[in-house]
């Protein structure tokens, strides 16, 4: 039904309008006890044999919602009912900012893809900290994506990341440095040696100070799928040197290979089906290079159970999705985990953790 509605109705409506209507719906339905209960009951995914322990946290199953969906932490209780096991909030910048001018979000139906050039529109760290405090009944792990304001000079970018982590430390369970979005001018330069060492050391130092005598909450780095192997190597070396807790692979791509939709030449980052293979390659590369010692969150083109299976076999400990969820709708998590469980049965796997990195 959702696929039909998608094909014949949603296609004609501005994607950003659909997004804000959906998040409003999630906000309202998640906050009312009867609808919360009903949706959570209807959409409850099978989780037997799916629990994952990593980053010092327990996840009910490996599938979370990726960065950019709930930028302002405004609909966590609604997302809770959809069955995801963890949520990424943000990307959050110190000051609120409107992002790039509209129209900036495009659906490529024939390719099951999205191009976006949102440019981190968000309510700013103070408002988002407030929203997260108000959502304290949300019990699943929350990861916060740290970013810089568009106006901040690249040389001072680390100050933005430090400010955001300082403001949100107490309300997040772990943190991701986002230096791989293609939609903030020059942001991806922060992935290079010239900036990355300073950025990681300042942010880790801030986290250590915030943790005091407790163990510091994990800091991860999200990478672009467009990095050359040598740049990825340098990034991994620095990440190990600065005791980074894991790598998120990957953000959206600038590649436009093999696309059919008329919107294919829009500027921005491409996500969804066409990204799947490349992001899996990056996961495999990182897993091998770090000898499986660095937890990887695999993201890019997950539409169902087989895609999760592939990402975990390549080396992902957890996975995230955005575009697949947009295309498949509210039953996305339940369907994907049902498929994953069937696959586990046919392959004789009792616990999903057994397959991590097996393809290597
Ligand atoms: C509309 C849109 C907005 C996004 N915003 C962010 C963001 O703010 N921060 C971030 O780290 N990634 C952002 N992403 C990237 C996703 O988190 C994810 O890395 C990427 O879309 C690949 O996964 P997918 O193929 O499942 O969509 C965004 C993606 C989309 C489609």
Describe this protein's structure.
The chain is of the alpha/beta class and 360 residues long. The protein has a single domain, classed as Aldolase class I (TIM Barrel, Alpha-Beta Barrel), CATH 3.20.20.70. The strands form three sheets. An eight-stranded parallel beta barrel has the order 3-4-7-8-9-10-12-13, surrounded by four helices. The chain is globular and about 50 Å long. Helix 5 runs parallel beside helix 6 (157-168), helix 6 (157-168) runs parallel beside helix 7 (193-211) and helix 9 packs parallel to helix 10 (305-314). The model has no long low-confidence stretch (mean pLDDT 93). Helix content is 39%, strand content 16%. It has twelve helices and 13 strands. The chain binds flavin mononucleotide. Residues 66-68, 71, 90-91, 105, 114, 116, 118, 120, 145, 178, 181, 222, 251-252, 271-272, 275, 299-302, 321-324 line the site of flavin mononucleotide. The site of flavin mononucleotide has 28 residues, from strand 3, strand 4, strand 6, strand 11 and helix 11.
- Which structural class do you get from the secondary structure elements? alpha/beta
The name of the CATH architecture is: Alpha-Beta Barrel
Number of helices: 12
User: What fraction of the residues are assigned to beta strands by DSSP?
Assistant: 15-25%
Strand elements, count: 13
Q: Can you tell me the overall shape?
A: globular
Biggest β-sheet, characterized?
Answer: 8 strands, parallel, barrel
As for the number of domains, it is 1
CATH superfamily: Aldolase class I
- Low-pLDDT regions: none
C-alpha end-to-end distance: 39 Å
């Amino acid at each position: 039904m959702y696929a039909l509605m998608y094909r014949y109705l949603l296609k004609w409506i501005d994607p950003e309008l659909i997004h804000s209507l959906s998040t409003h719906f999630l906000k309202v339905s998640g906050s009312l006890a009867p609808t919360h209960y009903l949706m959570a009951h209807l959409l409850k995914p099978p989780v037997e044999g799916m629990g994952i322990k990593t980053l010092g946290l327990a996840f009910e199953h490996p599938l979370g919602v990726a960065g950019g969906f709930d930028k302002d932490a405004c609909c966590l209780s609604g997302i809770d009912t959809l069955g995801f096991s963890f949520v990424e909030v943000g990307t959050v910048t110190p000051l609120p900012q409107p992002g790039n001018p509209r129209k900036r979000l495009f659906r490529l139906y024939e390719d099951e893809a999205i191009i976006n050039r949102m440019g981190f529109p968000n309510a700013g760290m103070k408002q988002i900290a407030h929203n997260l405090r108000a959502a304290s009944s949300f019990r699943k792990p929350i990861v916060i994506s740290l970013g810089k304001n568009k106006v901040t000079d690249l040389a001072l970018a680390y100050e933005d990341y430090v400010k955001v982590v300082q403001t949100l430390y107490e309300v997040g369970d772990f943190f991701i440095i986002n230096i791989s979005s293609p939609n903030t001018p020059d942001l991806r330069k922060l992935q290079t040696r010239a900036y990355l060492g300073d950025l990681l050391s300042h942010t880790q130092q801030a986290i250590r100070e915030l943790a005091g005598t407790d163990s510091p909450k994990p800091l991860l780095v999200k990478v672009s799928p467009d990095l050359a192997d040598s740049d990825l190597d340098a990034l991994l070396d620095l990440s190990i040197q600065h005791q980074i807790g894991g790598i998120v692979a990957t953000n959206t791509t600038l590649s436009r290979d093999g696309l059919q939709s008329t919107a294919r030449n829009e500027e921005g980052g491409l996500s969804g089906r066409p990204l799947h293979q490349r992001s899996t390659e990056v996961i495999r590369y990182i897993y091998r290079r770090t000898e499986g010692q660095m937890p990887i969150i695999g993201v890019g083109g997950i539409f169902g159970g087989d895609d999760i299976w592939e990402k975990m076999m390549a080396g992902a400990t957890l996975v995230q999705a955005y575009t697949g969820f947009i295309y498949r709708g509210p039953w996305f998590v339940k369907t994907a985990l049902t498929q994953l469980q069937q696959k586990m049965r046919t392959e004789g796997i009792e616990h999903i953790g057994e397959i991590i990195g097996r393809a290597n």
